[in-house]
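ok trying this again, last paste got cut off
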Amino acid sequence: MENSLIAIIPAAGAGTRACKNSAHELPKQYRNIAGKPMLIHSIMSLLADSRIRQIIVSVSPQDTLAEKLLSGLSKVTVRKYGGSTRFETVRNTVNSIDVFNNDWVIIHDAARPGLPISCLSSLIDKCLSTSNIVGGLLAIPVSNTIKKSIENVVDFTVERHNLWLAQTPQMFRISSLCKALNKISDSGLFTTDESSALEFIGLKPIIVRGSLYNMKVTWPEDFDIMEKII
């Protein structure tokens, strides 16, 4: 039987960096880009690949917008599994879903509404067609010169060869991801992406080339850039 593929969008954050010095009070995932809330763009980018059978949008227990906003969207379910950090939100959600150990889960940021279908499909194709693979992630090569600083003074220049900027979606076997997230939590640590969790337990996800269009909306000016992209 073909293994199931579901997606999780952690959307419990307040997006404080994106709203800094702005008049917007809504969490950034609900702000409009090209006439629609950013969260909807991110959901629709996942729905573009029919192999994803369900999308779980994980929001905070206090969220009153998601269910109204997303009602009627095919394959989309809202769950109030959100924690105080992105790590906690993903861990809570992964531990709560009813799937088989060999099923696949895709984690995608609510703040990456420009995901090209070609990148998503390439990630899924690569993971499903490669034997004995733990999973993979989208990433783009570092093109800028990277500086390491101490208190805003350059300490040294980082060699950028073989450096990548991690993106989402990230796709893993559900059993491996659960094990990794719970192991980190038990250690009192956390990670900023799921690949780091797999790396923590000694597993090595593959990298699939992403896209600059798949940028993460983080700062106030990013909304203007994403508006032009979409």
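PB: full thing came through this time. The chain has one domain: 5-229.
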